[in-house]
Amino acid sequence: MSPETAKIIPDAKEAGEHRSSIATRDLTRWLSKVGLTYHSPHKFRHGHAVYALKNAKDVSVLKAVSQNLMHENLTITDGIYGILSETDVRKQISELGQKLDDFQIENIASLMLSLKRIETLLLKQKA
Fold this sequence. Notes:
Blueprint: H1 19-33, H2 41-55, H3 59-68, H4 74-81, H5 86-94, H6 102-126
C-alpha cells in the first residue's frame, strides 16, 4: 500500500520478507499525513467488526460482516467480536421493550393484520 495515496501498489507481485513492518510503517506514515492517531491494522479490523455488529439490523447484515471478516461462519464472528461490554449489556437490558424501530413496527402491524384476518375467518366458520 502506498503511504502517499493509501492505494494498493499494482506492480507489487508478492509479499516481501518484511511485509509486516513495511505495512505498519506505511500505515503510520499515511495516518500521520492525514492527521489521525496510529492504531495497528488489527485494531482497525476489530473496530470495524464491533461497529458493524453493533449496527447490524438483521441476520443478513451479520452474515455479510462475518464474510467480510473472512470467517467461516457467524459463530466465529460472534465469539470473537460479539462479546458485549458491561455497559452495552446494561444498556440493552434496560431498553428491552422500550423502543421499536421501523422494521419492528412494520412486523407488528403485519402480525396484527394477519391475526385480524384469522379472527374474521374463524368467526365466519362458526356462523
